[in-house]
Amino acid sequence: MKTEKEIIKELKTKWKINPFDFWIPLSGVTEENTCYFDSFEFNEKFGFDKLNRIYNNLKTGGIYEFTYPKETKVIDELNIVDFSENDTFYIDENVSFVIYYTHQRTIAFAGIELINKIKEEWAEFEKFINPWERDNSIDIEFELEKRIPIWNSISEFYLDTELQDENYESITAIFLNSDLHISELKEIDLYEVFPVLKGNLMSVAGEWSGFDKKWLNESCTKAYLKRKNNLFRWKTKLYNRFLYSMRKDHWTEIENRMKMHYNK
Description:
Elements: H1 4-15, E1 34-38, H2 39-45, H3 48-58, E2 63-67, E3 71-75, E4 88-92, E5 98-101, E6 106-110, H4 112-121, H5 125-128, H6 140-155, H7 165-178, H8 182-202, H9 213-226, H10 230-243, H11 248-262
Antiparallel strand pairs: 1-6, 2-3, 2-4, 4-5, 5-6
């Protein structure tokens, strides 16, 4: 049986996947022999029971299950019933077939044989494939409107001032109201806010009273529209490697407050 490191290395080489990060459609673009579906539509119109049967018939050896943030185990059979609260990858030992099930109501696949088997048994396959790429699937204006209070809240992490308890309470309330997972909020920070405001972290005398909201929202919108560009993502991650420590404590504080809310 292959080690976890061997599987991760093959995943990155063969499918450009890091099993502890996002994949399509949350990150990156669909490439040859990959696709995704709305998980609710997939289960209703096709069925997880059929998927489990197809995958178990195709796979070789054990199934490597990688669950966010960093939990790994090997299982004998695929038995997807419902979402388990954390994004999860399922990979066979030959790394030929990949399933990625997420909190954003998506389920993605890699592997031509797996995809073809699903297609053979699902007459409406083409109707439901890659839903985020349908012309009427996402109302971008509505999506951007939802992000404005999130951008404004995250921007406080970049001010040259010390946040107080009331600031954290306000930010936490907005994050909770968004119904977004903490991992997705961090992704919004990384690819939509950080590229715009990283300069304030490096400035000797940075902005401390607050950023112009019109400018901030216009700039974050531009970053949002570029967020799936591979070069943009690579450059952003490179800068973030050196600057994340300057806002890490803010995220720790927010994460703890959100956990307290859910544990009430």
